[in-house]
Amino acid sequence: MGERNSGRLPKRDSSTVGSANLDLVRSLYAAWTHGDRSSIEWAHPEIEFVIADGPAPGRWTGLAGMEEGFRDLLSGWKEWRPQGDEYRELDGERVLVLDHFSGRGKTSGLEVRQMRTEGAALFQFRGGKVTMLVVYWDRERALADLGLAPPAGSQGS
Fold first, then answer.
1. Least-confidence region, from 4-13, 47-56, 65-74, 114-123
2. Strand 129-136 versus strand 43-51 pairing type
3. How many CA atoms are closer than 13 Å to the CA of 101, on its beta-carbon side?
4. In a domain, 120, yes or no
5. In terms of DSSP H, where are the helices of 34-100?
6. DSSP character at residue 113
7. What's the rounded Cα separation, in Å, for the pair 92 and 82?
8. Which domain holds residue 95?
């Protein structure tokens, strides 16, 4: 219990421990990795969708707003795919995914893996639905915003 305030990620490897929230987030990433973003049953009707940084930061509300935000996020990319590297249940209401992206710029043709692509996503839950989704292109910013230290072995900026 004392670890919660230590400023470090929980030591328990929640990437292998199951909970309903973790299972839902893993299933979303499995679909998104294959380009399937058709399901919205997981989202609360008044979801807050935030792109915290990167080329098109913004904030949208509701299912239509989330769709607009995703469209903005994906507009510059062909076959953009997030891939979860590590899943962490921060508490009973929040799941953090440390992820990376793959894809190709529509205009430049540049593969996203040729750039720094370590990001994160924070899912906030209430009543089994995601009420807020915050997407970070910069993993270290996500960790800093949450007051968490980077995982051991990661390089600082």
1. 4-13
2. parallel
3. 26
4. yes
5. 62-74
6. G
7. 24
8. 17-145
Q: Average model confidence (pLDDT) for the chain?
A: 81
Q: C-alpha angle with apex 122: 40 to 79, nearest 5 degrees?
A: 60
Contacts of 113 (CB under 8 A, 6+ apart): 100, 101, 102
Q: Which two tokens stand for residue 83?
A: 């891939």
Residue with the larger pLDDT of the pair 67 and 153: 67
Higher pLDDT, 67 or 152: 67
In this prediction, residue 128 has a pLDDT band, given cuts at 50, 70 and 90, of: very high
Cα–Cα dist 120/87, whole Å: 10
For residue 116, being part of any structural domain is answered with yes
- Write down the residue that tokens 């990661």 correspond to: 154
Buried b (16+ CB within 10 A) or exposed e, 136-147: bbbbbbbbeebe
If one counts the domains in the chain, the total is: 1
What CATH number did the domain enclosing 132 receive?
A: 3.10.450.50
